[in-house]
Specification:
The chain has 30 helices and 17 strands. With 771 residues, it is α+β, with helices and mostly antiparallel strands.
């Protein structure tokens, strides 16, 4: 198995084995990370394997620093596998072989794991098999839960084939490890989160006492200990009377007397630690748009503007990282504010609030809550005039900073803008975030009005830089990039610590061909806003354009790591793998990108099937390539995607090339004819000039008309009348190779060889293969 590649995972060494199969350390070749890959035992029944896959997919929604992340499940060449985050450290079972843990360390690890359980339960996922073997200790004060939601078939574990779906209640399922299973698990009763509370109570007892809570020489005796009448826990040196009471409540046989949730359990643990429970997890904060309690929706801008201003301030607090706004908005759509939202996001704190405007008066109520327990950190009610909104923001920002870090938050106070400037900017941001062509114009007008009143207001200047940068893909007019650059530089001069203008400055400079300058700006944006997926995405674009594809690959991988649902970043990663001849990795990324098209996401796409088709064509799967292109055409026709015209051209060109390779000349001619007509009618389509040349080259081959090839070569040389900007599949290396193939079809041997040589020099890996 060593050195074997399973899907896009290259096996490096064996980690262990169990009844479910073997576990290997593997390198994820697509995303550039290490993974623990379980190869399932062939002895598993098809039903058991299918159930494990379903449960594993359900756990993919969990994103928490104290949970080993599930990556994917699949089957390749008859091998069924599960891939998850590789966690370095030792299991809690191994640590306990040296005796009980010191009280502070045990509570710290327990705190992290209970936060993780709160996140999982909020997502509707039970663990059902919490035990020391499934906890990895990664430091003195941090633990990670492994095998979330996956019942393991090994000694001491029983399973019912009736367990077909994961959920908070599942009648008939008997899943877990004897000695840690709740009474209701042993009885096969419906389960809820209290069963995980029981199991974790048993683990906590063992951490503190150094021996099992339910000992016995056999499975039967351990089951009897769990199901027997209520009795005091065995005494232990590591347990004070208070600690014994907390653990005993977690282990109550009657679930109605048990802690109702992981959050309630955690609250009592914190009290047990006298409020000094140090958990080594990231200090993450979610800031929610404040709710409008006024009668008029015209005041909605106040809530989003308030939240964005607080975000700008609190992002500068050392040691505190903000949950990206897009992630907060998506999670908020399905959860209440406060601890429910915090548990779904897996964050430490949630800052939310509400406001009411009556005439010129404004009342604001703000709440900072613990993201797990819902405990109130502080609440504040502020009253003032509308034009005093910045004073209110400063007061809340100072108070939140002090509470978050436990220290005086003295910081630079920036001059407050005028209220009318702030209002226009806040309204403009609401339009911009919709990322539609019409709303871009509305955002631009509002940002311009804000800058007209206050020419040095950095957020509005950054907004104008973003608007003009995003107008370029629609219009492919370089003047838009020059305008974007100008606004970005003005914003940076006004506020050098703001990340957003550097993001768009780097993009505009790269599109203008000033790649090194663009890359430096993106590097600075990554330093100022490490959570931004767009900064490494644009930095990778800089490197790709200068032929540094290996470095571009690493940066695209970083963008996808920051936001696995970023469609454009996943597409770029897939295409870069393809350009580097990493065909299996490219296929995996592009298939994932196609799947993302049906989901809400950042950087949405429509029509990626054309790119998947090109990957399949290069892999020799011509019928699959044609099917993917047709699916891509269907998807792009239903969309108003910003790259709609380009992606439609890609689908048609790849469809034609695939048909031509299969010998279906009529289908190829039809696809290329449609592509030519489509692209000639859209001269401003991003990269459309490259695609038009490729379509003409294909049409020349399918119609056997040399004059069409001459048109293609002439257009490629002149590069006028159409846009030749970079877009995936719209690059010189791809176009030159298609021209070479067309020239070879007319027996122009020398010309074909010269074009192929130029394609190689332009970075084509495909040109090094068979003619």
């Amino acid at each position: 198995m060593l050195d074997r590649t399973i899907s896009h995972y290259r096996v490096e060494r064996r980690l262990g084995a169990g009844g479910m199969g073997e576990v290997f350390l593997a390198r994820d070749l697509a995303l550039g990370r290490m993974a623990a890959v379980k190869v399932l035992s062939p002895s598993l029944t098809a039903d058991s394997r299918a159930r494990l896959f379903r449960e594993a997919q359900a756990c993919a929604r969990l994103q928490h620093p104290a949970i080993a992340t599930f990556f994917e499940a699949g089957e390749v060449d008859g091998l069924a596998f599960l891939a998850m985050e590789f966690v370095e450290g030792e299991t809690l079972r191994d640590r306990l072989r040296h005796g009980p843990l010191p009280f502070p360390q045990a509570l710290s690890i327990a705190g992290a794991l209970l936060e993780a359980l709160g996140h999982a339960h909020a997502a509707g996922v039970l663990h059902r098999d919490i035990k020391p073997e499934n906890v990895m200790v990664t430091g003195d004060n941090l633990g990670k839960l492994l095998d979330f939601g996956i019942a393991r078939l090994q000694d001491g574990v029983v399973e019912s084939e009736a367990a077909t779906e994961i959920g908070l209640t599942q009648p008939g399922a008997v899943i877990g490890t004897i000695g840690y299973m709740s009474p209701e698990q042993l009885k096969g009763e419906p389960l809820d989160e209290r069963t995980d509370v029981f199991s974790f109570g048993a683990v906590l007892y063992e951490m503190l006492a150094g021996r099992p809570a339910f000992p016995g020489d056999s499975a039967a005796s351990r089951i009897a200990a769990i199901l027997s009448a209520e009795s005091p826990l065995p005494p232990a040196d590591g347990l004070t009377a208070e600690a014994t009471g907390v653990v005993a409540r977690a282990l109550a046989r009657d679930r109605e007397r048990r802690y109702s949730s992981a959050a309630a359990f955690l609250s009592d643990l914190r009290a047990l630690a006298s409020g000094d429970l140090r958990v080594s997890l990231p200090d993450t904060l979610a800031i929610v748009d404040f709710r409008n309690l006024s009668a008029s929706a015209d005041d909605d801008w106040i809530g989003s503007g308030f939240a964005e201003s607080l975000s700008a301030d609190l992002a500068r607090v050392p040691g505190v990282s903000l949950v990206p706004r897009e992630k907060v908005l998506k999670a908020r759509a399905g959860a209440e504010e406060g601890s429910a939202l915090g548990r779904i996001l897996g964050c430490r704190w949630v800052l939310s609030g509400a406001y009411q405007r009556v005439g010129k008066r404004l009342r604001v109520t703000a709440l900072l809550t613990d993201g797990v327990t819902g405990d109130l950190v502080f609440s504040e009610k502020l009253d003032g005039e509308l034009d005093e909104i910045f004073t209110l923001q400063d007061r809340l920002s100072a108070l939140a900073s002090e509470r978050l870090r436990g220290e005086d938050a003295s910081r630079e106070v920036r001059p407050a803008p005028r209220i009318d400037v702030f209002e226009r900017h806040a309204r403009g941001r609401r339009f911009f975030h919709r990322l539609e062509k019409g709303t871009m114009d509305q955002a631009r007008i509002l940002f311009e009005e804000a800058v007209g009143v206050d020419p040095s207001y950095a957020p509005a200047l950054a907004g104008l830089s973003a608007v003009h940068a995003m107008r370029f893909p629609f219009q492919t007019d370089p003047r838009e990039l020059e305008i974007s650059e100008s606004y970005a530089r003005r914003a940076i001069a006004s506020d050098p610590g703001l990340a957003e203008p550097r993001l768009w400055l780097g993009y505009s400079l790269t599109r203008l061909g000033r790649h090194d300058e663009g890359f430096e700006q993106e590097k600075r944006a990554m330093e100022l806003d490490p959570a931004s997926a767009y900064a490494p995405y644009f930095a990778a674009l800089c490197r790709f354009q200068t032929g540094q594809k290996e470095e571009a690959l690493r940066l695209f991988q970083r963008a996808v790591e920051l936001d696995p649902r970023h469609g454009l970043a996943m597409l770029a990663l897939g295409w870069t793998h393809l350009e580097l001849s990493h065909l299996p990795e490219a296929r995996w990324c592009l298939e994932r990108c196609v799947a993302l098209e049906g989901e809400a996401q950042m950087g949405p796409t429509a029509g990626v099937g054309g790119y998947l088709g090109e990957c399949l064509r290069r892999s020799g799967d011509l019928s699959g390539a044609r099917a993917a292109c047709l699916q891509g055409l269907e998807a792009v026709e239903r969309s108003d995607f910003m790259y709609r015209d380009t992606f439609r051209g890609v689908c048609l060109c790849v469809l034609g090339r695939s048909a031509l390779a299969e010998g279906d000349t009529a289908a190829a001619q039809a696809a290329f004819t449609q592509a030519v007509a489509h692209l000639r009618g859209r001269p401003r389509a991003l990269g459309g000039g490259q695609l038009l040349v490729q379509a003409l080259a294909g049409l020349a081959r399918s119609e056997k008309k040399e004059e069409i090839l001459d048109q293609a070569c002439d257009l490629f040389a002149r590069r006028d009348g159409h846009d030749f900007s970079l877009m995936w599949a719209c690059t010189d290396d791809v176009t030159l190779l298609e021209l070479s193939r067309a020239a070879a079809s007319f027996s122009k041997t020398d010309e074909a060889a010269e074009l192929r040589h130029r394609a190689l020099a332009a970075g084509s890996s495909e040109a090094s293969g068979p003619v």
